[in-house]
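## Example pair
The file below holds two records. Each record gives the amino-acid sequence first, followed by its structure token line.
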Amino acid sequence: MKKAILFLGLTILPALVQAETISGEYISKSKNDVSLLIKRIGKIARPSKKGAFSLKNVDIDNDTLVVKSPRFENSVLLPIKGTCQFTITEEENRLVVKQAKAPFNPPTAYNGIIVTKESLEKTGERMALAAINLKIPRQNSPTTFSGNTEPLYFIDGLLTSDISTVPLSEIAYAEVVRATNAESASLGARGANGMILLTTENKYHVENPDWNEPKEFTVEVPVTINEIPQTVKDK
């Protein structure tokens, strides 16, 4: 009985932050004196002669891109919020910023196989579990001492006995964990049969309010751009 209570209270720990790379283009008619950096880590990138730039090890959900130039009265702060591609165009007293959202790439909790709702919808099934079983057929799994060969099921991190009635329309993604990974997570005897974890759209949207925004959108950022006189070459 104590083991059963332990299982019912079990929740899945959040995954570690995954570092990503952002890149883009800075378009300006003036000389290239711009520097771009990630506020959290202070790593700096300077656009190439053609304006291309790239920054690695970025937390694309939480970091901020800082645009600096000696011609700007103030630095410009651009929240990244899932953006993987920037196109920044310098115009008179403003920066026009086009942001392309990163592909929907949910984190794993136990290094399992991630399948999004869009991927599962291609199976033609309407229930989440039926779609998962078609997309990722079960491997022969070991039988527990009790003779139960069912994997552990979780919905939004909480253990449940059955997910067969969960509509595919309600989930954002699923994670399928093979038996060896579940065992290493010390989830008890039933962990020997693997795990299937569902994350609903409601939960994911609350924790990631910008995840379903358009993949491309443009914002205009006011900025005071001061002209720097060009130096005159000595005759």
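Second record, same layout:
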Amino acid sequence: MQTQEAVMIFTALAQESRLQVYKILVENSLEGICPCEIAEILKMPRNTLSFHLSLLTQAGLVSKTKKGKMLIYRPNCEKIKETMAFLHNDCVACHNK
């Protein structure tokens, strides 16, 4: 993982609403979840949620698929694992100095 990519991921998650959205996505990772359900859970306007989902998607943290006329969002768990490995490797390197 490149540093720029890690910064984009941390920036996307460094906002309370987006972190809440991501948490809901993780909780519903197997079946996915539609934005209307997320908006209802968080009592968030759909246009605001759309903005947050867009940023999470751009950071590579979220994927979306169409199911009929509905969009279903899921977290990209591999991207989080990659990010954690990026941090872990840097911490191990730092600790060994």
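Notes on the second record: The first strand starts at residue 62 and ends at 67. The helical segments are 3-13, 16-27, 35-42, 46-58, 77-95.
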